[in-house]
Amino acid sequence: MYSIDELKKQNHEIDDLIAVLRVLIKEESLINNPLVCNMVSQFNEKVWMHLVFEEKSIYAELTLHPNPEIKKIADIFHRSAKEIKNEFSAYMRLWCLVSGSERHHQAFFEQSCTIMDKVKQRVTYEVENIFPLIEESETTYVRV
């Protein structure tokens, strides 16, 4: 089981990675740097695991709630997760192919910023809307 505090910690770690990666990926010469590649891989892994966990726990928790409005929010939350997972999967397949040419770097940079924006919006939505719903229902642990 994971507590809401642990999920919030995961979100904070994802936020931190986004902040650092936004700076690093601007510099074309760093794109193929092994440290940057490791950090991008770490970001990919953390986000993917977080999305998978949410689907199996938070979504499941909210769909069991007796309030139909909360179930509706859970459904919207679930659909947005599917959309992000699809886009994120495509992003993960492509990012290592960046050759360092300016055109490829620019495409990588733009796609990275787009996916990071979506992930950041998702994390913010969780903190501001989803976690409070779970906390209000007096559920302090999410089933795994």
Automatic annotation (TrEMBL):
Protein's name in the database: Hemerythrin-like domain-containing protein
Organism from which the protein derives: hydrothermal vent metagenome
